[in-house]
Amino acid sequence: MPEVPELLLVDKPKGITSFGVIRQLRRTLGVKKIGHAGTLDPLASGLMILGVGKGTKKLTELIKLDKEYVAEIRIGERRTTGDLEGDIIEEKAVTESVADLEAQVITALHDMTTTLTLPVSAYSAIKVDGVAMYKRARKAEKTGEQVTEVPIRDMKVHEAELLNLEIGSDRAVATVRFFVGSGTYIRSLAEELGRRLGYPATLQNLRRTKVGEFDIKNARPLEDRAPGAA
């Protein structure tokens, strides 16, 4: 059997957890010791760096690298989870023209290119007292409660570029490229962009395209991963 590389670049599809990627690769590669350099939510897709065997020792440094994302941000509604998985909790019809809103978004993104101090989504993977936030939030859902105490984090935005903007059905969708520091939560940036525009906002779609110098262009689809693949 061909030797398995210590680092694998995988293009994670939507609909699977990061641990689900590891579980599938363990079966495919026949290797038990696999870790990753940064979680992606089930609704997100894109670049995951996997350490295999001795490669897991490199993950501590890789997880600190800056990351690039392409995010679709729905302007006009806010949801409990900060993405489309949650229930709508606030709505406001978008009334501006594309040209006017585009100018506002560009200005807001320019002003957001700094270190921001923002709340982390209650549905994030951050652990509080040893328990992942999303697990606490899911448990609260079952009892009809809502998690109101969430961590506040400094989030570094190196670059924020508007790629596209569309308006329709009282909603707008801004496609934004974010280049951010480690520990930055795009759901938090999506909601912050909405606040600066005077609208509720939520993350509609997310794709991670770079981790440091590692590029999604060099990743292979999860189902294509095989021993010896580059």
CATH homologous superfamily title of the largest domain: Pseudouridine synthase
Shape: globular
Radius of gyration: 19 Å
| Main sheet makeup | 10 strands, mixed
- Output the helix-strand order: EHEEHEEEHEEEHEEHEEE
Q: What's the CATH topology label of the largest domain?
A: Pseudouridine synthase
Query: Architecture of the largest domain, according to CATH?
Result: 2-Layer Sandwich
What is the typical, i.e. mean, pLDDT? 88
Q: Quick one: CATH class of the largest domain?
A: Alpha Beta
Helix vs. strand class: alpha+beta
What percentage of residues falls in helices of 4 or more residues?
10-25%
Distance between the termini: 15 Å
Low-confidence spans: 225-230
Strand proportion, as a percent range, falls in 35-45%
Characterise the protein shown here.
The protein is an alpha+beta fold. The chain folds into two domains: 7-64 and 219-224, no CATH class; 67-210, Pseudouridine synthase, CATH 3.30.2350. It is built from five helices and 14 strands. Strands 1, 2, 3, 4, 7, 10, 11, 12, 13 and 14 form a ten-stranded mixed β-sheet that branches.
